[in-house]
Specification:
The chain is of the alpha/beta class. It contains nine helices and eight strands.
Length: 220
């Protein structure tokens, strides 16, 4: 018997490596307004709290809100049209999701990425493998607020004691804590261990195989 009935995954940096496409769209939007480009490393450090925050951290300091809004609109338009040019699942992720579904474990995604992009990416890369996908939506506070997790649990009729949240960032760990569910951190994503702000790690995994064994209770 698996350890969990529902596993909720973060998307960027956990299931998918989206960094190159995010960097390309960020720099497209910046260039459209005559702003200097950002390095891929700078974009990596700005990911995790939604695209509005990504753009705020990417435009030159002190840019007024109306300017940021125009850059954000250009980013969204470019990213929607180029959402999967370089984006790919991390090695072993497809096999993990298939194994979870085969064992009757429900699979969901909770991301701070715009909801339409979340659904596009899940349909493109994980067809038939995601029971519920939730991105940034009007009226639902972003992570680390627990609202998204609770909505997913209601939709999938899941008990908190049997729900696991998996992510690569401090935002994800705080989301699990705020929702009162188990959390797991994965090291292959966008946040390095020394960038987690001293948050206590509930469970940490360096490989997809180790995460799979934990979820499916293969360590006994």
């Amino acid at each position: 018997m698996a350890n969990f009935d529902l596993v909720i995954f973060d998307l960027d940096g956990t299931l998918l490596n989206t960094l190159d496409d995010l960097a390309a769209s960020t720099n497209h939007a910046l260039a459209a307004h005559g702003f200097p480009a950002r390095t891929t490393e700078q974009v990596r450090q700005a990911i995790g709290n939604g695209v509005r925050n990504l753009i705020r951290l990417s435009v030159p300091e002190g840019m007024p809100e109306p300017v940021q809004a125009h850059v954000l609109a250009d980013f969204k338009a470019h990213y929607t049209a180029n959402v999967s040019v370089h984006t790919r699942p991390y090695p072993g992720i497809l096999e993990l999701l298939r194994a979870l579904r085969a064992e009757g474990v429900r699979v969901a995604v909770n991301s701070n990425k715009v909801d339409s992009a979340v659904r596009l990416l899940c349909e493109a890369h994980f067809p038939g493998l995601i029971d519920f996908a939730l991105g940034e939506r009007e009226g639902i506070p972003k992570k680390p607020a627990p609202d998204g997790v609770r909505l997913i649990q209601r939709e999938l009729d899941a008990d908190s004691t049997r729900t696991l949240y998996v992510g690569d960032g401090d935002t994800d760990l705080l989301t699990a804590k705020n929702a009162g569910i188990s959390g797991a951190w994965v090291s292959w994503g966008y946040r390095h261990l020394d960038e987690l702000g001293g948050i206590d790690l509930p469970r940490a995994f360096d490989t997809v195989e180790a995460l799979r064994a934990y979820i499916l209770d293969r360590n006994k």
